[in-house]
Structures are given as C-alpha cells and as structure tokens.
Write a structure and sequence with these properties.
Length: about 140
Amino acid sequence: NNSSQLSSLPLHILLYVNGIYYIFYFLATLAMIIYKSQVFSYPDDFLAPDLAVLFLMAILEVPRLYLGFKGNLTEAEAPLGLSLGLTVGSVVLCVYLLLWQTYVLWADVVLNAVLLSAYGLESGLKVTAIAAFVS
C-alpha cells in the first residue's frame, strides 16, 4: 500500500494565486483597452481582435485552472496535462497582448511579464507533478 501523497502544494498555491491574479489582470487589461480606445485613435478593426484575445484568454483560464487543481488534487496526469496544454494557449494569447496588440503601454508590459512568469513557474511545477504521478 503506497500511501505517499504526490500532489504538489506549491502548484496548488500557485494555481490559487494565478486565479486571483488573473481576475486583476483581466480587469486591468480591459480597463486599459477601454482607456486606449478613448485616448488614442484606435482603429475599429483593431479594437475587436484585442478584446477578442482578452476574452478568449478569460474563457481558457477557467478550464485551465480547474483541470490544474483537479489533476493535482486527484494525482491524475491527464487533467494536469490538459491544463498544461491550455497554458500553452494562454501563453500565446499573453504574448499577443504583450507584443502585438494595437497599443502596448508600460503597464501592459508589467502585467503580461508577471503573468508569463507565473505561467512559466506553474508549467514547471505541472511537469514535475506529472512526472511524480507517472513514476
């Protein structure tokens, strides 16, 4: 009977903190897109893609975090692997908002750099947890 606990406390804490941070990130980024659309000449055909990326990212964040928590707590590699896959998608969208959205402010750079760092750390912990569950 192997009763050792394999779920990762650092991963659990980071998923929780990322969930809280993402709410702040989403609201701050949305506020800045609204601000930029008022202050700068924001072409209408550029506003929609920037907003779409932000909302798509928010939609991805829910299953990403849910599967991360579920996989970690149940010590199951499949949900954790799916969460890792969704993280890759979130990273791509985050990089879009960091580099390719219509106007990138200093605050955008800070918000996205923190989120990318959290995604990176979280991904490393997920890979480590998956390796522990499989072995």
